[in-house]
Amino acid sequence: MNRATATASIRAQRYAHVLKLERWRVWTMLTALMLLFVVLLARGLWLQAFNEAFLQGQGDARYTRTLKTEANRGMITDRNGDPLAISTPVQSIWASPRGMALLPPGQKRDEDWEPANDKDPVPVSQDELKKLANALGMPAADLIKKVSDGRKNDKGELVRPDFVWVKRGLSPTDAKSVLALNVPGIYAQTEYRRYYPAGEVMAHIIGFVNIDGKGQEGFELTRDSMLAGKPGSRTVIRDRRGYIVEDISTIVPPRDGETLTLSVDRRIQYLAYRELKAAVESNHAAGGGIVVLDAKSGEVLALANAPSYNPNSRERIDPAARRNRALTDIYEPGSVMKPVTISAVMDAGKLTPESRVDTFNGTMAIGPNTIHDTHHGGVLSIAQVIQQSSNVGAARISLMMPREYMWNAYHNAGFGEVPHSGFPGEAGGILRNWKNWRPIEQATMAFGNGISVSLMQMARAYQMFADGGQIHPITFTKLVAPVPGKQVIKPETALAMRNMMESVVQPGGTGMPARVVGYRVAGKTGTSHKLEGGVYVNRYVASFIGMAPASDPRLIIAVMIDDPTGGKHFGGSVAGPVFSNVMAGSLRLLGVPPDAPTDNILIPAPDESDSRE
């Protein structure tokens, strides 16, 4: 083999070796690429098949938003359709801090500024925020803090939120002027603000809602789900600046709340609140409450407390003024309990209105304790025990019956259990088990000491005298027809007691200031000492509960004045005039015909020293 042939052979072998090496590299690279492609394909399939929800969520978080469409909260009206709570549309201003880049003080945004990418926040100067704060009526420092605050993530980076409220509840006109400033990252959302036309007059019945429209007190709280309705929704795609690009789902319309019609009569409510407030102020009292019931149905026509508050100005509400004294406060009722006690004994056949009881000249000893009357009455008829409000007479009558019988009588009258009116926080009072009663306790309960009740419970109990011995369930909802009542005492007992209670407002009785021109009134006064540290002190709760027209009662009104310090403290002289004024006005408003001469003249109230309570 010559040299040329050998060289060619060597070259051919080298070429074959290089070609073989290159093929191996090609196949290796191709195999690697194929494997990578398979891995990527598998990864893509896995993400699509098993992790789709996560990816979809991440995408939605960047581009989609579900906008809530507020439902219009249902209206609350009185029994005649007059609005007591309505919702009006307002605009609330919000910001997207994540989409804003706050510039240093004095620096302005370049007019030709363009974003580098979709995630690039829009520069906002502090001068723009100051103008915005001025339009919103808030300090500029507070606004700057709202849009610059955030939290640090795991990497220590400051992450600002997508959404923060700036100011809520603006009128549409004010919101329009705010948006006209065209501050990047500032938007408006339609909401509803609750408005209460009756203000403080209805505050303790209606209650109020918070800034988010959730009920906080009264029927705004108890009927929140009914009134709130159900908000709608709308899912959209937004660009970096927050503008809506398109809707990507069906719009779900909101379902507005239902209208709640109460049993309350706004006219009677205003009258009751006006008279109660005047009495609390004139008697320098700590507070007071009043309840007006329909005697035939148990509907609450009015319920007021003093002091009250304006639910339209929630930020300045005194917590003490929010107390619904008529429903949530309990007290020892005093002599207004005597008709309940005596009627129970009469119903057992032990007494008649003509029966007589010796009051021992106004003093009665039970063990180491002594019961006193203000006046020494001697032997009194049952009617005189009611008229002159004899503690001794009521105690002796109660002790005629076993403890268990009297406990059942009080319990059947609704004491010791909540009235179930549907109102939040109503009190059930205190009626201890009869097995633990001592004779002195049975005696004192007869005239309202040693038992605790709410004013609503007392008003409810007096239904038995107004409607043939029946007690109807208390309701704040307007009824189409009365709910059947519970028979507590016999109809003849109820009529006899009502006739005896008429004497309370006649000459010689303790409640003459409660008389009403043109109408017969049956009622009872009450004056109870307050307990402080387990000891009775010279501070009082004055009350009057009555009904009219006595011939066929239409209304029951219960009045309670807490701790009067203006020189008078007896129920007849403090609570009686409130009853008289409210009853007179209410009967006229309802068109109830008189059942007594309309030209009679009210006799001036007796002097405090002549009171027999």
Short characterization:
The protein is an alpha+beta fold.
Strand and helix map with partners:
Layout: H1 3-50, H2 52-63, E1 64-69, E2 76-77, E3 83-95, E4 100-102, E5 122-124, H3 126-136, H4 140-148, E6 151-152, E7 158-159, E8 164-170, H5 172-179, E9 186-195, H6 203-206, H7 218-222, H8 224-228, E10 232-238, E11 244-247, E12 260-261, H9 266-282, E13 287-294, E14 300-306, H10 325-328, H11 338-347, E15 356-358, E16 363-366, E17 369-372, E18 379-381, H12 382-388, H13 391-398, H14 403-412, H15 439-445, H16 455-461, H17 463-466, E19 470-471, E20 486-487, H18 491-502, E21 522-532, E22 535-548, E23 555-562, H19 571-574, H20 576-589
Parallel strand pairs: 2-12, 4-5
Antiparallel strand pairs: 1-10, 2-3, 3-8, 3-9, 6-7, 10-11, 13-14, 13-23, 15-18, 16-17, 19-20, 21-22, 22-23
**Distance separating the two termini:** 150 Å
Indicate the proportion of strand residues.
Answer: 15-25%
Main sheet attributes: strand count, strand direction, barrel closure: 5 strands, mixed
Question: Averaged pLDDT, please?
Answer: 86
Which structural class should the secondary elements be placed in?
Answer: alpha+beta
Low-pLDDT residue spans: 605-612
CATH class of the largest domain: Alpha Beta
Helical fraction: 25-40%
How many DSSP E strands? 23
User: Radius of gyration in whole Å, from Cα?
Assistant: 39 Å
**How many structurally independent domains?**
2
CATH topology assignment of the largest domain: Beta-lactamase
Overall body shape: elongated
How many H/I helical runs? 20
Give the CATH H-level superfamily of the largest domain. DD-peptidase/beta-lactamase superfamily
Mind telling me which CATH architecture of the largest domain this is?
Answer: 3-Layer(aba) Sandwich
